[in-house]
Structure formats: C-alpha cells, structure tokens
Specification:
The protein is an alpha/beta fold and 392 residues long. The protein contains 17 helices and eleven strands. The protein has three domains: 144 residues, 3-Layer(aba) Sandwich (Rossmann fold), CATH 3.40.50; 118 residues, no CATH class; 76 residues, Rna Polymerase Sigma Factor, Chain: A. Strand 3, helix 3 and strand 4 form a beta-alpha-beta unit. The N and C termini lie far apart (64 Å). Bound molecules: nicotinamide-adenine-dinucleotide and magnesium ion. Its cofactor is Mg(2+); Mn(2+).
Length: 392
C-alpha cells in the first residue's frame, strides 16, 4: 500500500536521511510536501526526484527562486511561515518533523491536528510544549513517534513492557567535541571547533549543542515529556563510542540496552516502518571487532547544561520553552562570536532566573500562544543579559 508522507525540514540532515530511505522505495510512498529554508536548489531537486505535490520554503523572499527552480514540473511552490503551517495540515499518513528549533512546534502540532503520525526529530517541540504535543495527538487520534536516537532506543526497549516496572532510563552522550579538553580551554573554544562531532554527522546547531551538552539537556527533558517519567528516574551516561544509545532499567534489576551504529537512518527507519520492522541499510555492527565499549559519569562542572535541565524539570510549566529559547538565542550569539562557549550556559541560567521572577509567566497555561510569548521574552532577555554582561 502506498503511504502519503510529508517531510518538514527536508533539506537538513534528518530530512536528507529521511529522503534517502523513502527514495529507495518509490512505489511505497506518495510524497505530498517537502519544506526547506535557504537551500532552494536542494529543495527543488528533491521535490522533482520524489514527485512531491508541494514544496515550501520558510522564507518569503525565496518564493520567486523556488518557482523558477520548479518551472515545468507541475509542483506547487509556496513560501513563508503561514504557508508552512498550511502545508503541514495537508492530509497524509506520516509526517517527519525535522525543522530545527522551536520553529518546528507549530507545523508539527498542525500535522497532529489532522490525524497524522508525527515522526518527531524536532526535540524542541517536546521541550517547549510536551503536554500540548501529547494532548493534541490524543485529541485527534494521531501518534507521536520519537526519532531522536536515544528516545527511539528507549521506545524500542519499552515495547511489550509496563512503564510502571521501569526504575530508570539512561540516555547516553558522546561528550561532543570537547569531551577531553582541559576545562580552562573551553572558554576559548570557537564555533568551528564546537561544530565538529566525533561520531555523528548532524546539522551545525545540534552539533554545537552536543559539545555544550545542551543537546543532552534538551533530551533529558524530552525523555521526561515523552515517556511521562519522573526526573529522578532519568540519567545521563557519557559513552564516547555512541553505539549504545539508551538503556532501560527495570524493577528486577535487568537493563535493556539498545545498540546500533551512529546512523540516524536506523531511528528514522524505525519510525517510518512502525509498527512493523522494515529493512534499513545501515552498517551492521561487528562487536568482536569493536571489542570494548566505555562509559563514565558526566561532569556537571564541564557541562552545566545538565544541571539546568534538572532545574527546568523541577519548575515545569513553560520553563522548557524559556530554557530552549534562551539556549537558541545564546547559540545564535555564540555562532556570531558575541559570546564565548562557556558563556552560553551562564546566559541561559540568568534568563531562567530573571523570567521565573515574573509572576504569571512560567506558570501560565500551556497554549501555543503562551509558549510563543515565553519563547519571545526569553530571546529578548538573553540579548539583555548579554548586553548587561558586556557593560561589566
Ligand atoms: P539541519 O540544520 O540540518 O536542518 C534543519 C532543517 O530545518 C532545514 O531543512 C532548514 O531549512 C529548516 N529550517 C531551519 N530553520 C527553519 C525555520 N525557522 N522555519 C522553517 N524551517 C527551518 O538540522 P538537523 O540536524 O537535521 O536537525 C533537525 C531536528 O532534528 C532538530 O530538532 C534536531 O535537534 C533533531 N535531531 C537531529 C539529529 C541529527 O542527526 N541531525 C539527531 C537527533 C535529533
Ligand atoms: Mg539524540
């Protein structure tokens, strides 16, 4: 049976891996929508290759370029935020949510409102508005499947299990680019150095977030929201080889580990074929060859983001939205070389302190409008914190 699918963020790292799998089975899928950003050439090539019905760029000023690139193909072109959200509402069976950042939330919710299965790579959706995402899926008979490798691993380990029997969930972290750097050098780390990942080939932003552990901090919150676990059951373990993606510990002392190559096509393929298992062309691990796997406890002095994630889980409400937005803005400013690598966590912490002091903000109801409001204020506050610091 042909399945109708849409890919939001098709031109990115997860989007391209999703296309790789779908393109291998042209009879299996009818592609409805592909969305992208600045890379119009890639978007148009893929839309033509996959026979998509509609291609959307997030940028209004790129509509002409997209129309030109699709000329003669019969593929519709559209641009801008509203067009993107409308595109996500097109009726399909399965939607890949692979836009980076909080911008992925509204289109993902729209897809869920139309009953689609949402394959969620956009972890920011869960961090900013986990309860809203889950409630929307429930209300419209849709379902959310994790694509983040750790969460896919936990999901797989939980099949057939009772969540009440889960004692702990351990998600692993490679430690990123600066795992073994002396602490005093971190202050001087450049965006280029931070954007080099030892094991995974990912987008620039998530790669830098891996070096700062903000990625893992987001994933800890994502774990809580996705599986409804209490924060004290969630642990992070540094695992430099990135082959064990997560472990689930049960009340009888058993630990189920998910082991696989560092290739996102496994988790994407799992979500694509679910509830069945379909063949996915990833490398098969030769454990005798690999011989050893190593693990160590994370050091919160090196990675303060992990401590901040705990505080966010304790506070709850809209603090995840504030945390993510402050992180996104600090990352923008680090990439622009306005602040240093270690300052990102300091700025985020200060933003959280300032916003939690504003009555009725973080504990407001979780609606899309309130999430957007907190997101906006947190970005502004991050800029203000950075300005205040530069005056000192
Ligand atoms: P990427 O930067 O490679 O791609 C991002 C995609 O989103 C591109 O198509 C881009 O055009 C689009 N985009 C960017 N800003 C946008 C905006 N404001 N509005 C609309 N579209 C926009 O990112 P990625 O590495 O593929 O990551 C995508 C998501 O998946 C992120 O949430 C990331 O945390 C998550 N994720 C990625 C990986 C990975 O291996 N890359 C692994 C786990 C989770
Ligand atoms: Mg991950």
């Amino acid at each position: 049976m042909t399945r109708r699918v849409s890919i939001l963020g098709a031109t990115g790292s997860i989007g391209q891996n999703t296309i790789d799998l779908i393109a291998r089975d042209p009879q299996g899928y009818q592609v409805e929508v592909l969305t992208g950003g600045h890379n119009i050439a890639q978007l148009a090539v893929d839309a033509r290759r996959l026979g998509a019905r509609l291609a959307v760029t997030a940028h209004d000023d790129k509509l002409g370029a997209l129309r030109d690139a699709l000329a003669g193909s019969g593929i519709e072109a559209a641009a801008g935020e509203t067009a993107l959200i409308e595109a996500a509402a097109r009726p399909v069976d399965w939607v890949m949510s692979a836009i980076v950042g909080a911008a992925g939330l509204a289109p993902g919710l729209k897809a869920l409102e139309h009953g689609a299965t949402l394959a969620l790579a956009n972890k920011e959706s869960m961090v900013c508005a986990g309860a809203l995402v889950s409630a929307t899926a429930k209300a419209h008979g849709g379902r959310v499947l994790p694509v983040d490798s750790e969460h896919s691993a936990v999901f797989q380990a939980l099949i057939g299990e009772d969540i009440e029997a889960v004692e702990r969930v351990i998600i692993t972290a490679s430690g990123g680019a600066f795992r073994d750097w002396p602490l005093e050098r971190l202050r001087e780390a450049t965006p280029e150095q931070a954007a080099t990942h030892p094991n995974w080939d990912m987008g620039q932003r998530i790669t830098i977030d891996s070096a700062s552990m903000f990625n893992k901090a987001l994933e800890v919150v994502e774990t809580k929201e996705f599986f409804g676990l209490s924060p004290d059951k969630i642990e992070v373990l540094v695992h430099p080889e990135s082959l064990v993606h997560a472990l689930v510990g049960f009340c009888d002392g058993g630990l189920m580990a998910h082991v696989g190559p560092a290739d996102m096509r496994h988790a994407i393929g799992f979500a694509l074929h679910y509830p069945e298992r379909g063949a996915v062309p990833v490398e098969r691990l030769d454990l005798a060859q690999i011989a050893t796997l190593s693990f160590r406890a994370p050091d919160e002095t090196r990675w303060p983001a992990l401590r901040l994630a705990r505080e966010v889980m304790e506070t709850g409400g809209l603090s995840g939205a504030a945390f993510n937005a402050a992180k996104e803005r600090s990352l923008d400013r680090f990439i622009a070389r306005d602040i240093g690598f270690t300052e990102m966590a300091e700025v985020v912490e200060e933003v959280l302190t300032r916003l939690s002091g504003q009555p009725g903000l973080i504990d407001a109801a979780m609606t899309l409008d309130n999430v957007a409001r907190v997101d906006h204020l947190a970005r502004e506050e991050a800029d203000r914190v950075i300005r205040d610091r530069s005056k000192r």
